[in-house]
Task: structure prediction
Amino acid sequence: INSAGVGYFGMHEDIDFEKIERIIDLNLKAPILLSKLFLKALKKNRGYIFNISSISAIKPAIFGAAYGASKAGLRHFGKSLFSEARKSGLKVININPDITKTPFFENLNFSYTDDSESYIEPLEIAKIVEDILNLREGTVITDITVEPQKFKILKKSCKNPQ
Result:
């Protein structure tokens, strides 16, 4: 499961080169290289690769251009890898959650609200993974988007500003 991620948000011209490199390295480069490292064994065992991407892979990421590009790249990688390796039995699944109640937002200037209908719980993503693992052999969900019922974002002051 490729689920590590980092994001820095703001006007693209205001984000340091080092932060952009970190976004690309962790969100895109690491999953591509890790997948390559384990690909032969995963194909042999008809395994799974889960890419936990982001809603930003699908929708424009305002104030998160590099983040959105990294997640869109991860999603495209997953779709391409599945097409390339599907005959081996390898399953590649992209999960694109919207705002999820995790520590990801601790040092950002926005977060989820207290309204339980405005965020995704991490256990809900885990349940989706479990449900996919329990599908009949030969059936693959390759791409799934998970959104809360309500769209609400809490704006806050940033602990570690850009």
Summary: The CA atoms of residues 108 and 158 lie 5 Å apart. The beta strands are 48-52, 91-97, 110-111, 143-146, 154-155. The chain has one domain: 12-155.
